[in-house]
Amino acid sequence: MLMTFAEEICAFLQGIPGVKSTEIIGSLAKGNFDKYSDIDIEVDVSGMDNGQFLIELPKLLSEKYDIVYCDFAPSLVPHKYIVSFAADIPNPFRFVDISCVATPHCTTVTKQELQSLNHLYDHTVKLFVINLKHYLRDWDCYDDIVSMYKRICNSGDEERDEAYMLKATYAWLIENADDTQEKHLLKFEEFI
User: Residue 85 belongs to what H/E stretch?
Assistant: First the structure.
């Protein structure tokens, strides 16, 4: 199922003018994925501006997929251009990270430009999914959960435990969700 969905996305991306190749990378390519794993895809748009292509990707993807959230990774700029998106599929942990590469690597899109395109809600959903899966895997993620929690809950009680902060973040997400987002988020109920 996971590989099938990843291959479907690659086939769709391969049909976009300017895309030279697509490659499944990360845990799926290595074969060490689990039920919480996301999908990592690298898209080669050599000869084009990979940063500009990245900015266009959400619109292009929305032509095929019902996108629940989309979030750029400005902290990786200018070395990497990555966008994450989640489609409305049964497993809510299955968001997709798409890395846009090119030869030569273009650095025209700035960190500030991508930050301005991000939305607090979408960014928080992505952080919530990442932190929840790390928590469920029993990884050390306390500081990341605190950081996420402080973005939306300015109560000064960051001394709470991880479960409390995850539940509080989840409650904020549900409270601020539109119908599509809420439907997607309710799939996390069994994990909270």
Answer: strand 82-87
pLDDT value of residue 2 = 85
Domains contained in the chain, CATH given: 2-117 (3.30.460.10), 120-183 (no CATH)
Q: Which of 46-60, 130-144, 149-163 has the lowest average pLDDT? A: 149-163
Burial class from Cβ neighbours inside 10 Å (0-12, 13-18, 19+) for residue 85 reads buried
Is the link from the previous residue into 58 a cis peptide, with omega within 30 of 0? no
Task: Note the pTM of the prediction, 2 decimals.
Answer: 0.93
Contacts of residue 13, defined as CB under 8 A and 6 or more positions apart, other chains included, come to 19, 22, 41, 43, 98
